[in-house]
Amino acid sequence: MSKVDAEAPQAEAEQVEAVGPVTSGGRRRPRWPVVAGVAAVLCSVVMAAASGHILWEHRNQARDQQNRAEFVAAAKQIVVTLMSIDFRDPQAGVQRILDNSADPFRTEFQSGAEDFVQLSTDAGVTTKATANAAAVRSATTESAVVLVAATSTVTTADGVAEAPRSWRLAVDLQRDGDRIKMSKVEFLQ
């Protein structure tokens, strides 16, 4: 037996030892650094997916919060517009209400607008409203129902102010192009 033949089994044993032990099926078992590397890659992928999901949820929540804030601001302004009437120019008040309303409220209010103007003129009072608080009852991206707490003060033609009155309203809102308009209003007890 030559020296080369004697070294061959030893070299083969060293090569097998470098790769790892052989299992009973003849396949080599992976070494610890390979297993750790694969585990690190899998953990990184899972963490990236979780981070992406959290970021997506955060953006959805921020968009929903912005949407609700827009509806609350619109509801407060619309309630002030609806409840603030000056007997010296009731037609302007009616027009502001119509400009900020959508059907079915718009059609309903428009049909009684002349009576409203006459009643305001005959009463000879100015009503000034303040929206104190508002909260969204329900909302989608295109519509919402907002609850508004408001206070109104009536002042007579001779400048005498009555005690403020408190109101609670449920206002149905809907998007109309780039504006938010009232489609229904309900005075609550």
Write up what this structure looks like.
- The chain has helices at residues 3-19, 32-83, 90-99, 105-111, 113-123; strands spanning 85-86, 125-139, 143-156, 165-176, 179-188.
- The protein is α+β, with helices and mostly antiparallel strands and 189 residues long.
- It has one domain (34-188): Roll (Nuclear Transport Factor 2, Chain: A), CATH 3.10.450.
- A five-stranded antiparallel beta sheet has the order 1-2-3-4-5, sandwiched between helices.
- It is rod-shaped.
- The model has no long low-confidence stretch (mean pLDDT 88).
Question: What is the approximate shape?
Answer: rod-shaped
Written as H for each helix and E for each strand, in order along the chain, the element string is HHEHHHEEEE
CATH C-level class: Alpha Beta
What is the overall number of helices? 5
Please state how the strands of the largest beta sheet are arranged side by side: 1-2-3-4-5
CATH homologous superfamily grouping:
VirB8 protein
Q: What is the SS-derived class?
A: alpha+beta
Please mark out the parts with pLDDT under 50 across 5 or more consecutive residues, or reply none.
Answer: none
Q: How many independent structural domains?
A: 1
What's the CATH architecture name?
Roll
Q: Give the integer mean of the pLDDT values.
A: 88
The biggest beta sheet is recorded as: 5 strands, antiparallel
Intertermini distance: 109 Å
How is the CATH topology named? Nuclear Transport Factor 2, Chain: A
Q: Count all strands and give the number.
A: 5
Which radius of gyration do the C-alpha atoms yield? 37 Å
Percent in helix:
40-55%
Strand content: 25-35%
The oligomerization state is single chain
